[in-house]
Design goal:
Layout: E1 10-15, H1 42-59, E2 63-68, E3 85-88, E4 92-95, H2 101-104, H3 109-118, E5 121-124, H4 137-140, E6 142-144, E7 149-153, H5 160-170, E8 173-177, E9 194-196, E10 200-203, H6 211-223, E11 227-230, H7 233-236, E12 244-247, E13 260-265, H8 266-271, H9 274-281, E14 285-289, H10 292-298, H11 302-305, E15 307-308
Parallel strand pairs: 1-2, 4-5, 7-8, 10-11, 13-14
Antiparallel strand pairs: 1-15, 3-4, 6-7, 9-10, 12-13
Helix pairs in contact: 1-10
């Protein structure tokens, strides 16, 4: 398989319906509140934020494929589709095993049928749930598609054995590590603390406690031509690691040209330092949108909301 390009100009998003906190995922998603949010307006605000992000993407020249959450409260995290599937430029579709039962409902037959028309080669890993092995898509795996490297921090949602199986099936090298937050708790998804672009990587290096492993990963970034934008634990908590590089379609862009983009929430944008934003702006145009309610209640940010269609 030859990915050829790190980014795509087409993404699938799932519009929230009756959005709420997912109590099942609170155990290991420390971005979610520990106590219930009783605001009756949460669902409506989440829908408004979602639509604003779609508008920002389309205005920047990204093609948005929109699906509805037909399951409502039964699947509160359906707004984060990147965890249950990934697509690849050779026509491959990968379906992933999810740790929490109500998240498995997100893998709807109608969406799989829609995807299979463009991605007929299906690698179905769902049966690993019976063995209590999980791998949650591009939440667990941050992919350097050009250099065929998968970066992943091992956790309850990211099985080392399954990561290695995935890498053999798709022909990737693997860079595994353990990452922890500011309270030394294991980080559940790699894309919480790391986002990788064509020429840069945003990463919280201090979350990789093993200093030797940290040096090895930095060397790999150097060899593959990635400038490191090192973020702090505090910036991780503001979703600075939850970013995604895309590119615009000239015909759709208001500027009429193809540009590299970096999509993030407005909270993340404000949390980056001026120097960090200047570094990123050498490579991309930054697109940001307010996702406060979705981040606060769902524990996921802009990157989690976009499933790439290559």
């Amino acid at each position: 398989m030859d990915e050829r390009c790190q980014n795509t100009n087409r993404v699938l998003l799932v519009e929230p319906h009756r959005f709420r906190i997912n109590e099942e995922t609170q155990e290991d998603n420390y971005f979610q509140p520990r106590t219930p949010v009783l605001d009756v307006h949460v669902a409506e605000r989440a829908k408004q934020e979602f639509r604003a992000l779609c508008h920002a993407l389309e205005s920047a020249g990204v093609e948005v494929v929109l699906k509805q959450n037909t399951l409502g409260e039964r699947a509160p995290d359906a707004i984060f589709p990147n965890n249950w599937f990934s697509t690849h430029s050779d026509g491959q579709l990968v379906l992933y095993p999810m740790r929490h039962e109500n998240r498995r409902l997100e893998r709807r037959d109608d969406i799989i049928e829609f995807l299979s028309k463009s991605y007929p080669n299906v690698l179905d890993l769902r049966s690993y749930e019976l063995q209590e092995q999980y791998l949650e898509g591009t939440g667990s795996l941050v992919l350097d598609r050009v250099n065929r490297i998968a970066y992943a921090c091992v956790s309850e949602r990211s099985s080392e054995a399954l990561i290695r199986h995935w890498s053999e099936e798709l022909g990737y090298e693997v860079e595994l590590f353990t990452a922890v937050d500011s309270e030394q708790r294991v980080i559940y998804h790699t894309n919480v603390m790391m986002g990788l672009g064509t020429s840069f990587v945003v990463i919280c290096l201090t979350s990789i406690a093993d200093k030797a492993r940290r040096r090895e990963i930095c060397l790999r970034f150097e060899k593959t031509g990635k400038e490191i934008v090192d973020i702090s634990h505090a910036q991780v908590e503001q979703f600075c690691g939850n970013v995604l590089e895309l590119r615009s379609v000239p015909e759709l862009s208001s500027a009429g040209t193809m540009k590299q983009l970096l999509v993030m929430s407005s909270k993340a944008y404000r949390a980056f330092s001026v120097a960090q934003r200047e570094t990123l702006s050498r490579y991309v145009d930054i697109v940001h949108s307010d996702l406060h309610t979705i981040e606060e209640c769902g524990g996921g940010g802009a990157r989690c909301m976009m499933a790439e269609l290559f």
